[in-house]
TrEMBL record:
Domain Peptidase M24 residues, every copy: 322-534
Domain named Creatinase N-terminal: residues: 21-147
UniProt key word Metal-binding: yes
Record keywords: Aminopeptidase, Hydrolase, Metal-binding, Protease
Name recorded for this polypeptide: Aminopeptidase P family protein
A single cellular component GO annotation: cytoplasm
InterPro entries: Creatin/AminoP/Spt16_N (IPR029149), Creatinase/aminopeptidase-like (IPR036005), Creatinase_N (IPR000587), Pept_M24 (IPR000994), Pept_M24B (IPR033740), Peptidase_M24_C (IPR032416), X-Pro_aminopeptidase_P (IPR050422)
Length: 604
C-alpha cells in the first residue's frame, strides 16, 4: 500500500510545543515568529523533516501558517481546511483564522508593538511575501528579522532526518525532449530577458529540466534540490550526492555541475560577486536566496520561474502518455466501481476499505508507481471536508442514503491522474440529486467551454459556479489546477480559479472539479482532467477558439442526476461522454464489469 491511515494529528501538542517555541524565541530576543507549511522549496509536498507547522499545531493540511507572539497565537488556513483545522488543532492555543478574510499581515498589524522583533526563517518566506511583512512591521514600528536557522528546529526533539530518495533518469521517449534541449531553450529565454542566470527552487521544475525523477516526498516523484542555470555554460545542480547512483551521476555530470546542498548559498554568492543579473521568481524564491545574491553584489531580475510555462505546456509525447495513463486508470476505476456497487449496499464497507480496494485495482495494472496523493475517501459528513484524510480514528462506514465522495489519483511513468466521483449508496433524496446535478452542470460548462487565446482561468471559473450561484450556493476552492507529466498532481502556473491569472495555452492539463459541501452532511465533487486544445475555427465565427479535451474516462453516477435540471445540450454531452467511456474502456475490463458499464453509461 502506498497510503497509510495512521492518525498524524495530535491537537494536544499545541500547548507544550508553543511553550517550547516561546522559550526559544525569548532566548533569541524575538517577540514573535511565523511558521508556514512550506519548506525551502515553497512546495506543497513537504517531507516529514520539514513539517514544522504540523509539529507545532497538529494541523496536517497542505497549506497554512501559524503566528506565535508572546501572549497570543493563531493558525491561518484557506477555505479547504476550515473544518479540518478545528478537528486537528487546539483552538484555545491556536485559534483558526481564514487566510483570505483575515490574512496573517492584518492579524499582525493589529498586534505588533513598537520596538518588537518578528522572526522568520529566510528560506521559508518568499521575496513577495517578505515585502508585505516588512511593510506591516514598519508601520507598527516593529522589525522583521530574517534568520538563517529556524527556532522550531532547535526545540523539535526526534525530528526526522532529511529524505534521501534515489534519483532516477526519466527517459527521453517519455519526456519527449532531451534535457540538453530543454536547458538550451531556457538559456535562450534568459538571454532574451538580459539575465546572466536564473535560480530554480521548485523540485518539479528541476526534475522536468534535467529529465530526472526522485523519491523525497510522498506520492510525487520529486528530488529535493536547487539549481542555477546560466545563460551560457553548464547549469549547477545542488543535490545530496547520496541520492545519485554512479550511472545517474555520470549522465548528470554531462549536463550540469553537481554540488551538495550546503554549497548552494556559496554558488549564489559567486554569482553576486561576479556582478551577475540573476532571475528569481519572487513568488517562489525565499528571501534568503535574494539576500545572498544582492549581498554579494548581484542584481535581481524578478520574473516567473522560466521552467513553469514550458513544463505546463505538454509536448505531443507527454500528451500521448497522459491519454494512455488515463485510459489504463479508467479501466482500474471501472473495476472498482463495479465492485463498490456490489459491496457498499451491504452496509459494512468503510472509507478505508474502499480506498484500499481502489489502490489494489490500480496495483493490478502492474505499472503503478504510486498514488498521486492520499485518497480522499469521505462518507457522509467526512465528504464535506474538502481535503479530508481518512485515518483509523476518523474512519466511518459508508452509510446508506448519503452520497460518498472519493477523490484519488495515480502515478504511472507515462502520466499522472486525478479523478473525483461522488457515488450513490442507497436511495438519494431530491435535495442530494439537485445539488449533484448543479455541480454536474458546472462541470459540463467547463468541459464544453470555447474561449479565445489569452483567456485566463479566472475568466472561466464563473462557468463552473453560475448554476450554484443561482441557487444561492458555492464552493470554497478553485475549480481546477494544473497537473504534471509523471510529476506533481498540483502544478502551476495554470489554474481555473478566481486567482487564475495565467492565460491557458494548448497542451496544458487542468482539472475540472466543481463541488458543493453542506457542512456536517455530505460532499459532492466531480472531477475530470482536461487538455487545452489548439485554437479551431467555429462555423460562422470570426476567430478561432481554444477548448478542452477530456481525458478522464469514468462514468458519472446517473442515480444522482436529476435529468429534468439538465438542458438538452447538457444531456447530449453526458450521453456522448458515456458512449465514449463505454467504447474505449469496455474492451479493457472483464465480462462482468462490461455488463455493469453498459448500465452505468446508459443514455438519459
Amino acid at each position: 500500500m502506498f497510503q497509510t491511515f495512521d492518525d498524524l494529528s495530535d491537537p494536544s501538542c499545541g500547548a507544550p510545543h508553543a511553550a517550547l517555541l516561546r522559550k526559544e524565541l525569548e532566548r533569541r530576543g524575538l517577540d514573535g515568529f511565523l511558521i508556514p507549511r512550506a519548506d525551502a522549496h515553497q512546495g506543497e509536498y513537504v517531507p516529514p523533516h520539514d513539517c514544522r507547522l504540523q509539529w507545532l499545531t497538529g494541523f496536517t493540511g497542505s497549506a497554512g501558517t501559524a503566528a506565535v507572539l508572546g501572549e497570543e497565537a493563531a493558525i491561518f488556513v484557506d477555505g479547504r481546511y476550515t473544518i479540518q483545522v478545528r478537528e486537528q488543532v487546539d483552538m484555545t492555543v491556536f485559534p483558526a483564522q481564514h487566510l483570505v478574510n483575515e490574512p496573517v499581515s492584518d492579524w499582525l498589524a493589529a498586534r505588533l508593538k513598537p520596538g518588537q522583533k518578528l522572526g522568520i526563517d529566510a528560506m521559508l518566506h518568499t521575496v513577495r511575501e517578505v515585502r508585505r511583512l516588512k511593510t506591516v512591521c514598519e508601520e507598527a514600528g516593529a522589525e522583521l528579522v530574517a534568520l538563517e536557522d529556524n527556532p522550531v528546529d532547535a526545540v523539535w526533539e526526534d525530528r526526522p532526518q532529511p529524505p534521501l530518495g534515489q534519483v532516477a533518469l526519466y527517459p527521453d521517449e517519455l519526456a519527449g525532449k532531451a534535457a540538453s534541449d530543454k536547458i538550451a531553450e531556457i538559456q535562450a529565454g534568459l538571454s532574451d530577458k538580459k539575465a546572466d542566470a536564473c535560480v530554480l527552487t521548485q523540485p518539479d521544475s528541476i526534475a522536468w529540466l534535467f529529465n530526472i525523477r526522485g523519491n523525497d516526498v510522498s506520492h510525487t516523484p520529486l528530488p529535493l534540490s536547487f539549481a542555477t542555470v546560466p545563460a551560457e555554460g553548464k547549469p549547477s545542480l545542488y543535490i545530496d550526492g547520496r541520492k545519485l547512483s554512479n550511472s545517474v551521476r555520470d549522465v548528470l555530470s554531462g549536463l550540469t555541475e553537481l554540488g551538495e546542498p550546503g554549497a548552494f548559498k556559496g554558488g549564489l554568492e559567486t554569482l553576486g560577486k561576479a556582478g551577475a543579473r540573476v532571475l528569481i521568481d519572487p513568488a517562489l524564491a525565499g528571501i534568503g536566496i535574494a539576500d545572498a545574491i544582492t549581498g554579494a553584489g548581484g542584481t535581481l531580475i524578478e520574473a516567473q520561474d522560466p521552467v513553469l510555462l514550458p513544463k505546463a505546456v505538454k509536448n505531443p509525447v507527454e500528451l500521448k502518455g497522459a491519454r494512455a495513463a488515463h485510459l489504463r486508470d479508467a479501466a482500474a476505476y471501472v473495476n472498482f466501481l463495479c465492485w463498490f456497487d456490489e459491496e457498499a449496499p451491504k452496509g459494512e464497507l468503510d472509507e478505508i476499505g474502499a480506498a484500499v480496494r481502489l489502490e489494489e485495482f490500480r496495483q493490478a495494472t502492474g505499472v503503478l508507481k504510486d498514488i498521486s496523493f492520499e485518497t480522499i475517501s469521505g462518507a457522509g459528513p467526512n465528504g464535506a471536508i474538502c481535503h479530508y484524510r481518512v485515518s483509523w480514528k476518523s474512519n466511518l462506514k459508508i452509510p446508506l442514503g448519503k452520497p460518498y465522495l472519493i477523490d484519488s489519483g495515480a502515478q504511472y511513468d507515462d502520466g499522472t491522474t486525478d479523478i473525483t466521483r461522488t457515488l450513490a449508496v442507497g436511495e438519494m433524496s431530491a435535495e442530494m440529486k439537485r445539488h449533484y446535478t448543479l455541480v454536474l452542470k458546472g462541470h459540463i460548462a467547463i468541459s464544453t467551454a470555447k474561449f479565445p487565446e489569452g483567456t485566463t482561468g479566472a475568466q472561466l471559473d464563473t462557468l463552473a459556479r453560475i448554476d450554484l450561484w443561482k441557487a444561492g450556493l458555492d464552493f470554497d476552492h478553485g475549480t481546477g489546477h494544473g497537473v504534471g507529466a509523471y510529476l506533481s498532481v498540483h502544478e502551476g502556473p495554470q489554474r481555473i480559479a478566481k486567482t487564475g491569472t495565467v492565460p491557458l495555452k494548448p497542451g496544458m492539463i487542468l482539472s475540472n472539479e466543481p463541488g458543493y459541501y453542506p457542512a456536517g452532511e455530505y460532499g459532492i465533487r466531480l472531477e475530470n482532467l482536461e487538455i487545452v486544445t489548439e485554437a479551431r475555427e467555429i462555423e460562422g465565427g470570426e476567430r478561432p477558439m481554444l477548448g478542452f479535451e477530456t481525458i478522464t474516462l469514468v462514468p458519472f453516477d446517473l442515480r444522482l442526476v436529476e435529468v429534468a435540471l439538465l438542458t438538452q445540450s447538457e444531456r447530449d454531452w453526458l450521453n456522448r461522454y458515456h458512449e465514449r467511456v463505454r467504447w474505449e474502456v469496455g474492451p479493457l475490463v472483464g465480462a462482468r464489469e462490461r455488463i455493469w458499464l453498459e448500465h452505468a453509461t446508459r443514455a438519459v
